[in-house]
Amino acid sequence: MTPDPVRVDSNQYIQTDALNAQLQKRSRKSGLVTVAAQPIKVALGIGSTAILARLLTPADFGLLAMVAPLLKLVDSLANLGLETATVQREKLDHQQASAVFWLSLKINAVVLGLMVLMAPVLARFYQQNELTEITIALAVGVLSLCLTFQHKSLLKRQMRFEAITAIEIGSLLAGAISAIAAAWLGLGYWALVLQIVVMQLTQSIASWFVCGWRPARYVKSNALDFNLRAMVAYGAHLTGFRFLTRIGMSLDRILIGYLSGAGALGFYAVAYQWAYFPFEQIYHPLFDVAVSSFSRTQHDPQLYRAYCRRGLMPIFAFSMPILAFGFVVARDIVLLLLGNQWLPAVPLLQVLAIAVFVGSMYRVTKWLYVSTSQTDRQLRWGLIHTPVMIGAVAIGAMWGAFGVAVGYAAGICLLTYPSVAFCLKTSPLSTSDFFGVVWRPAFASIIAAIILYATQFALPLNQGVLSLLLKTIVFSVFYLLLWILLGGMQLFKSSRNL
After folding, report:
1. Quick one: which of 157, 150, 158 has its CA closest to 81?
2. How crowded is residue 161: how many other Cβ atoms within 10 Å of its Cβ?
3. If you compute the radius of gyration of the chain from its CA atoms, what whole number of angstroms results?
4. What is the DSSP string of 348-398?
5. pLDDT value of position 8
6. Helix (H, G, I), strand (E, B) or coil at 130
7. Cα separation of 414 and 405, whole Å?
8. Contact indicator for 382, 419 with CB cutoff of 8 Å
9. Nearest by Cα to 216 from 85, 106, 78, 101
10. Res. 319: pLDDT tops 80
């Protein structure tokens, strides 16, 4: 019997036997590609934001920030977590992948319908009529992502991160050009809306053409239903956790927007964006690489631990020093990149940088939950995390935007160690493994920041590009010296030899 050519062609995007045979090589190459592409992404992100911050007002950014919590909730519900289940699942065939695609379309239709219905509710809540049209316009980009989520998931499953990275850079460039042109023409907040929608449309169209997989017609069977139920259970737990935690993590912006208006929210939103910027530049690209490679090694605890140590090290070694440096030179960064009108964001940026520095340890536990199919435990932790964050932010709201930032940071700091301990309790990765990776960059970053703070007043330059460059050199020298003295280079070399 001649095999179906469509199914044969589609299986090349699903089966992982060939990938498993060279997993170490593919993992290393994927990690290098994603990290190497980050300078380009960073340049696009910083450049476009710096230009837009001078062409637009804080209120323009504030209007988009009012919709951001709704977008995060929609993102948490879309696909019901099945995109991650597609990447994580050890065995998958064409029919299962197709069943996931059709089920997700039904789920996403409901989610998008609710998003559109929420548009006038959002406008009335904030008393900003513009939010109705903004929300509906953003739904177009979300729809495009929903139609091609399975294609991107299958590219991740095959660890084709060269293609994924090229798509991401292209979409970022298209979005940035569109936004700058719109802002230059005086379209105000629509420039920021256009940036997101164009980026999402470009990414979706490219993913559809790069991944040749096409869904088959759904054919009901007992075996298929059993496997689909297992994937849905996995995805539902993950979705529940995302939804719960994003409520807690978004309340800060909701309260500021409601109590203080678009202008104050604009300052907070930009400070939040820049505080998370260094962490997200490496966390999000490596998340897909980590989940793909960790999931392929979950059958071997020792190998899994080795891959985790190697995967976690770049996160902390890269983001922690930048966050510590950013705390000290926050004023210089804001003046250089955004201009004088954004100076009220400086204290907010400093407080939120502390939250991200500490919370980075909490965020990476998602890799461990997802790769070992323990999203049910992740959901249980979310039931603890969300009430604490809501309480901390609500208390801080009594002191305005700065109080909200302090409450947010306090909640993150309070929850981080318990969250890590809860995750590691049933993980192949031990506490000594985890904190053995964390303590060197954390200690070196803090000491280097203290040295820079104590010596910056003695530096010959007080402001501008040259001053920031000199401070960067001073901090980098001390950080690298401390890193080497603490044995960081030996750890790095040993991880490369795994």
Report:
1. 150
2. 25
3. 23
4. HHHHHHHHHHHHHHHHTHHHHHHHTT-HHHHHHHHHHHHHHHHHHHHHHGG
5. 42
6. helix
7. 14
8. no
9. 101
10. yes
Contacts (Cβ under 8 Å, ≥6 apart) of 115: 70, 74, 135, 139, 142
Specify whether the CB–CB gap between 362 and 347 falls below 8 A: no
Rounded distance, CA 432 to CA 120, Å?
51
Helix (H/G/I), strand (E/B), else coil: 89: coil
Half-sphere exposure (Cβ direction) of 63: Cα atoms closer than 13 Å? 22
Closest listed residue to residue 264, CA positions, set 405, 121, 395, 136: 405
Q: What's the CA gap between 263 and 59, in Å, rounded?
A: 4
Distances (CA, A) of 15 to 9, 31, 86, 311, 467: 11, 21, 11, 24, 53
Dihedral of CA 68/74/77/80: which sign? negative
Asked if 279 and 352 touch (Cβ cutoff 8 Å), the reply is no
- Name the pTM for this structure: 0.79
pLDDT tens track for 269-300 = 899 988 998 888 778 777 767 776 776 676 77
**449 close to 475: Cβ distance less than 8 angstroms:** yes
- How far apart, in whole angstroms, are the C-alpha atoms of residue 73 and residue 237? 15
CB atoms within 10 A of CB 70: 20
Measured distance CA(394)–CA(37) in Å, rounded: 39
Q: Give residue-wise pLDDT tens across range 171-215.
A: 999 999 999 999 999 999 999 999 999 999 999 999 988 888 888
Measured between alpha carbons, how far is 360 from 315 in angstroms, rounded to an integer? Answer: 8
Angle between helices 58-77 and 130-147 (to 10 degrees): 40
Residue in 101, 38, 30 with CA at minimum distance from that of residue 288: 30
Q: What is the pLDDT of residue 271?
A: 92
User: Over the chain, what is the mean pLDDT?
Assistant: 84
Which is it for the CA torsion 194, 196, 202, 204, positive or negative? negative
What pLDDT band is residue 4 in, cutting at 50, 70 and 90? very low
Instruction: Give the separation between CA 329 and CA 311, rounded to whole angstroms.
Output: 29
First to last CA, the chain: 44
Contact 214, 151 (CB under 8 A): no
> Taking 70 as the threshold, does the pLDDT of residue 425 lie above it?
yes
Does residue 410 or residue 375 have the better pLDDT? Answer: 410
- Identify whether the C-beta of residue 13 lies closer than 8 Å to the C-beta of residue 213: yes
Q: Contact at 8 Å (CB) between 278 and 357?
A: no
- Closest C-alpha to 312, from 423, 236, 477: 423
Rounded alpha-carbon distances, angstroms, from residue 236 to 124, 173, 207, 271, 306? 31, 34, 25, 32, 29
